[in-house]
Amino acid sequence: MLSRPKMAILREQGVNGQVEMAAAFDRAGFAAVDVHMSDIISGRVKLADFKGFVACGGFSYGDVLGAGEGWAKSILFNPRARDEFEGFFNRSDTFALGVCNGCQMMSNLHEIIPGGENWAHFARNQSEQFEARFVMVEVQQSPSILFDGMAGSRMPIVVAHGEGYADFGGTKRLHDAQPLVTLRYVDHYGKPTTTYPLNPNGSPQGITGLTTPDGRFSIMMPHPERVFRAVQNSWHPGEWQENGAWLRMFQNARKWVG
């Protein structure tokens, strides 16, 4: 029987995307383990026991401290939690994914993530409102282990966020981040777009996913876990049975672990 590597499904107060995320990684061959931040801060759970973790989406702390920022600060300013995460990121056999609120959280941990210094900070949508939509993205050529063999794919995906604008703080970091871009919002012609609502938050060059130079740590604003099954899509090709196109991303993670 094939082994099932342990995957930490990480959540914080207010996070609501952990069930779908656990189901996606379970389908891909992982043993999904529910891990609350209080488990790490108290020492009940150690990240050393896991091959990967995913920071899930939702509304941590009700988004009152800036989406994901309060979550990140609970790690950066807590010695035990910071040591746990730094140790995890500095291993060579680990990977991590941050989605939506988890994307914002991980982007705020860039100082302890090797290769994360050119990531964007995620700020309020330019539409000045929460956006819950089905949008089209294109997978970019990047070192990300999650998107291996998927470059050029254009697929619909769910977004649900109020603070998804990728703010690079200037042209230099935006330029330096180009090789790390994994996903872009695209228009009906497959071109990267900043046009609303095809790009729901106004992010420059349609950027909505980033990775590190070694491809092990990735962040993305859209929700692949909400469309990994065929029936979760509003439309799908007739030949699709159970699995949707986004399951490939989770299977790539399992393939990388070996």
Oligomeric form of this entry?
A: single chain
Our count of domains comes out at 1
The total of beta strands comes to 11
Query: For this structure, what is the CATH homologous superfamily?
Result: Class I glutamine amidotransferase (GATase) domain
Estimate percent helicity. Answer: 10-25%
- CATH fold call: Rossmann fold
User: Spatial order of the strands in the main sheet?
Assistant: 2-1-3-4-11-10-9-6-7
Q: CATH top level?
A: Alpha Beta
Order of helices and strands: EHEHEHHEHEEEEHEEEH
Q: Structural class, please?
A: alpha/beta
Q: What is the CA–CA distance across the termini? A: 14 Å
Mean pLDDT: 95
Low-confidence stretches: none
3D shape = globular
Please render the helix and strand layout as text.
Layout: E1 6-11, H1 18-27, E2 31-36, H2 37-42, E3 52-55, H3 69-76, H4 79-89, E4 95-99, H5 101-107, E5 121-123, E6 131-139, E7 154-161, E8 165-167, H6 171-176, E9 181-185, E10 207-211, E11 217-220, H7 247-257
Parallel strand pairs: 1-2, 1-3, 3-4, 4-11
Antiparallel strand pairs: 5-8, 6-7, 6-9, 9-10, 10-11
